[in-house]
Amino acid sequence: MRTHLHAIFIAALLAMPPTAMAQQQIKAPFGMQWGETLDRITEVVSKAKARIAGVSTVGDREALAVDGIVQEGLKRTIFYFSEGGLNEVELQYDREDWDESRVGSWVTTIKQQADRKYGPGRIFADERGEKDGIQHTLRGWIWVQGFVSLRLVHYTAQKGTLRMRRISLHYCNG
User: Fold this and answer.
1) pLDDT tens digits, one per residue of 121-139
2) Does the pTM exceed 0.70?
3) Are 159 and 134 in contact (CB under 8 A)?
4) CATH: 3.40.1000, 3.30.750, 1.25.40, 1.10.287. Which one for 25-173?
5) pLDDT over 90 for what percent of the chain?
6) Signed CA dihedral, 108, 111, 117, 122: sign only
């Protein structure tokens, strides 16, 4: 009986698509570890020659905003701390010189890369609308592994010639 269950388990593993077996673990970006302190992250950021834009309180968490981390299109990184430890990293991107079509293709590429690394993501937001003359679009995907998740968010808002756009990746623990 035990050999029979072992054979079924091996057959099930072999039947899985290669991407399911090769999924990577979602980890905090930049080689950081969940639970690191604000002081430790500040030290690492300073050594990387990035600039601390500010520290604030967001809800019941501390948030450290950092500019100047070198990565294509990365405008700002926000590190969130709960109970003294790192529990979320938000990477905010923009390609100011790109039109919406090119940005949409870039977001699709990011999503496909995450799908390959972490398995298929699922849509958690898909909204379009207008309020007070502002046209907005929100698309979001999420990948979850245990208590860790990655969210990709693409948000745009436009009123007349004024346009705001944000593409962000949120690495969350807990």
Assistant:
1) 999 999 999 999 999 999 9
2) yes
3) yes
4) 3.40.1000
5) 71
6) negative
